[in-house]
Each structure stands twice: as structure tokens, then as C-alpha cells.
């Protein structure tokens, strides 16, 4: 298998953490696709992923799977424990609900803020920007952080009592927040404590060094 990604990206981090949690690092080769150079928007890469986003999983039979949730679902089905996407219907439903909320309310909102209300990836990539929309999404992300702070005051993990895909997604959102210098609200003590715990997980600590990215092959 190959993972086409950019090693410091918050979305690629989601798949890298999932790989480490499942112990699948040795089965993957990483192919570096430069976001700053806009390699993910070139025709060669768009042939692999119509959406022009990272990461992308390339299987040995030539199949390409994009979208972090879809890739994590695939990886989760390859091996047994730990399970990141749930085992019972209830677990699966709650994890997918909270994962989607983490995307919509924090991670994706910060992404829109980055691409529209900051210099983003630069003028060669950010062809269109709407600063007002970006700032609205920044405010949405701040509200989302407060929501997850409330959740984490009641339970140790985003979807309940166990670490899951939803935790990985929210963690990716807070990685992005750090990159764009968007602080977690000072009153969000539970979210801050959770983030500190997540940073101690081996899968999180090792996500940047699990493999040396090879030259882009797009």
C-alpha cells in the first residue's frame, strides 16, 4: 500500500495516527505530495483523487481511496483490535456521529478559515478567497471547541469510554488550530487536558517519523 500525503498536514495526520494505532506502518510506503507547491492540484494527482485533497490510499491493485474516514474504515477492517470505528451498531453510530461533528465543527471550519482568511498556501494555490466566510468559519471552530469541551467534561474520549476515529479527527483539528495560531478558548479546560493526553499517545508522537516520505510521484 502507498499513502500519498504531506507529512505535517492535519488531515494526513489522521491516517498516520490510525496506521500507528493499528500497527500497520510497516505495510505502507509514503509518497510526499507538496501542498506548498500545489502538487495536489495538478492533473497527475487529480487522476488519483478528483477532489485534489490529501491523503490518498493507493492499494496494490491500483485502487485509490480518498477521504480520511473512508481510509480509516478500510484500515480498521484489515486487522482486529484496537477498533477505531466501533464494533456494535451503537458504537459505530456514535463514533461516526462524533467524527462527523469533529470534522464539521472544528477541523473543516479551521481549514476554511486557513484557506480564505489567511494567506493559506499562497497565491499560486489560493486562487479564490472570501475573507468574510473564512472569519465566520473561524468563529464556528471556536464554538465547536467549546462544544467538545462540554463533551469531554462528561467522558474521557470524544465518543465515550474508548479512543476512536472521532478522537483522531478532533486531534487533527487542534493540530490545524496550532498551525494557524488559533488558540483553544481559555475556559476549555477539559479539551486542553484531553489534547495533552492525546499528545502522549505513541501513535500521535510518532506520526511525523513513522517513515521518511519519498519524492512525490504524481
What do these coordinates show?
- This protein is of the alpha+beta class.
- It folds into two domains: 82 residues, Glutaredoxin (3-Layer(aba) Sandwich); 113 residues, Glutathione S-transferase Yfyf (Class Pi), Chain A, domain 2.
- It contains eight helices and four strands, in the order βαβαββαααααα.
- It has a four-stranded mixed sheet, with helices on one face.
- A hairpin with a 5-residue loop joins strand 3 and strand 4.
- Helix 1 runs parallel beside helix 3, helix 1 packs antiparallel against helix 6 and helix 4 packs parallel to helix 6.
- The C terminus is likely disordered.
- Shape, per Cα inertia axes: globular
Q: Roughly what is the average pLDDT, rounded to an integer?
A: 94
Q: How do the strands of the widest beta sheet line up side by side? A: 2-1-3-4
Q: For the terminal residues, how far apart are their CA atoms?
A: 16 Å
- How do the SSEs run, as a string of H and E? EHEHEEHHHHHH
Can you tell me the number of structural domains? 2
Low-confidence stretches: 213-218
What CATH architecture of the largest domain would you give? Answer: Up-down Bundle
Helical amount: 40-55%
